[in-house]
Every structure is written in structure tokens, then in C-alpha cells.
């Protein structure tokens, strides 16, 4: 049962519950898409119906953002914990390695995606990497053909949102062998070490947004979406 915030869907599932459902869907050869949902994205969806449709059409809308968790508590919902995009990717990589599912990496700069794969392979040596491409390929048809021929069962697309979700929507029917699609934003930057994650203290308290704000004050305008989102959720008489 999904929850809705301002008519935007969120899956109230933990990492473990998502992996369990994915394993079932993979065994049934069903394709699954994973999209991260945070207050900023919900507010964007209020102005852009295409973004709202992209989110709501996904298989799993993960609660990436403390604002979603707070909104669920305010509405006495079922979202138990944050499920961040970068941590979801990490869990999926472990899952892919244990279940021998080849993965494909698409997006970011050449040096970033290569370094991310190198670091990931150091941590998960038995991971099967079907291939990779930087995010600057011009011939999309050729790229999709290469991915399809690679044998990948899982793909991580790092093009920024909603570009990555639109790419998945355009190409999912041509990638019938790929069973798990996740748009991962800047996660390759994190795995490559280009961008440092917030210290564990901030992550445990759900204050990664505050840590990023301290490091990048220019993010203040974006962070103002959080109080506006919570105010609108409280006033919303619908979903």
C-alpha cells in the first residue's frame, strides 16, 4: 500500500523489503524501476505533470529525504525509515553480486564513472560489471543497443533528475533483458570519492541536507522547499 503526498506516490518500504520484492519480480522476469522522492521533487511535481507521472508510474518510489519521513509521521503514515538513493544503490550492488546479476553503469564524466566502478569492485570483488558508458554519449540508439547486448540485468542511470527517469521511460521497452532500473543522480560522484558523503552522525539524524547546506550555502533556496512542502502536506485534505 503506497502513501501519497500532494498526489505524489511513495513506497513505505525498507531497503530489505524492496530487495525481497525485487527478488520475486526478477524471478518472474518483471521489470522494476526505482525513483527517489524528496520534498523538492514533490514540489516540482506540483508544477510539472510529467514529473508527477514519472514518479507515480515507477515500481518503487523510495523515501529519499527526511521531509518525506516527517510528512508521513504528521499524516500517521507507514514510512518507517529513509531509503536514500545512494544507499539503495549500495544495497542493490550487494544484491546483484550475491544473485549473480550483471550490472551496467551509465552517466557522469568518464573519469568519474570509471573510478566509481574501480572503487565498487574493490569493495565487492564478485560483482559482475556488464559494462559502462559516460553520460555524454550522443547516439542514444547505439548506446541502448550496446546495453541490451551486454547481458546486464540491472542498470544505474546517473544523468540527474528528471533526465535519467525520462531516459529510462524512453528506453525500457528496448531493454527487455534489464530487470532493474535505478536513477541515481550524483551517486557515481559519491562512489568515486569525488563528492564526500555527510559524516555518519549527520546521516543517522537525517541531517545530510543540513551538512550539505553548511558546505554549500547556495543550496538554501532549494532547502526552503522542505518547510513549504510540510505546510502544504498539513493543509492537504486529499492524499
From TrEMBL:
The protein's annotated catalytic reaction(s) are: UDP-N-acetyl-alpha-D-mannosamine + N-acetyl-alpha-D-glucosaminyl-di-trans,octa-cis-undecaprenyl diphosphate = N-acetyl-beta-D-mannosaminyl-(1->4)-N-acetyl-alpha-D-glucosaminyl di-trans,octa-cis-undecaprenyl diphosphate + UDP + H(+)
Keywords attached to this Swiss-Prot or TrEMBL record, sorted alphabetically, are: Cell wall biogenesis/degradation, Glycosyltransferase, Teichoic acid biosynthesis, Transferase
Query: To which pathway does this protein belong?
Result: Cell wall biogenesis; teichoic acid biosynthesis
Enzyme Commission (EC) number: 2.4.1.187
**The protein's enzyme class:** transferase
Q: Which Pfam families match?
A: Glyco_tran_WecG
Matching HAMAP family, A to Z? TagA_TarA (MF_02070)
Function text: Catalyzes the conversion of GlcNAc-PP-undecaprenol into ManNAc-GlcNAc-PP-undecaprenol, the first committed lipid intermediate in the de novo synthesis of teichoic acid.
Task: Give the family from UniProt.
Answer: Belongs to the glycosyltransferase 26 family. TagA/TarA subfamily.
Q: What is this protein called?
A: N-acetylglucosaminyldiphosphoundecaprenol N-acetyl-beta-D-mannosaminyltransferase
Amino acid at each position: 500500500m503506497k502513501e501519497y503526498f500532494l498526489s505524489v506516490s511513495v513506497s513505505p518500504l525498507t531497503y530489505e523489503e524492496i530487495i525481497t520484492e525485487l527478488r520475486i519480480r526478477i524471478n518472474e522476469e518483471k521489470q522494476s524501476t526505482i525513483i527517489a522522492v524528496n520534498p523538492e521533487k514533490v514540489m516540482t511535481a506540483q508544477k510539472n505533470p510529467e514529473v508527477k507521472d514519472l514518479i507515480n508510474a515507477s515500481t518503487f518510489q523510495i523515501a529519499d529525504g527526511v521531509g518525506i519521513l516527517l510528512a508521513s509521521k504528521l499524516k500517521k503514515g507507514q514510512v518507517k525509515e529513509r531509503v536514500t538513493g545512494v544507499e539503495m544503490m549500495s544495497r542493490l550492488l550487494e544484491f546483484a553480486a550475491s544473485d549473480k546479476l550483471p550490472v551496467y553503469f551509465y552517466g557522469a564524466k568518464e573519469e568519474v564513472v570509471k573510478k566509481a566502478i574501480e572503487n565498487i569492485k574493490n569493495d565487492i570483488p564478485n560483482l559482475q560489471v556488464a559494462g559502462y558508458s559516460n553520460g555524454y554519449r550522443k547516439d542514444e540508439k547505439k548506446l541502448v543497443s550496446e546495453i541490451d547486448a551486454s547481458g546486464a540485468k540491472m542498470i544505474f542511470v546517473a544523468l540527474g533528475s528528471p533526465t535519467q527517469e525520462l531516459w529510462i521511460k524512453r528506453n525500457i521497452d528496448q531493454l527487455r533483458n534489464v530487470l532493474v532500473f535505478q536513477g541515481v543522480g550524483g551517486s557515481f560522484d559519491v562512489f568515486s570519492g569525488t563528492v564526500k558523503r555527510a559524516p555518519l552522525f549527520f546521516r543517522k539524524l537525517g541531517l545530510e541536507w543540513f551538512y550539505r547546506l553548511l558546505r554549500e550555502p547556495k543550496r538554501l533556496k532549494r532547502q526552503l522547499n522542505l518547510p513549504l512542502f510540510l505546510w502544504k502536506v498539513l493543509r492537504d485534505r486529499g492524499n
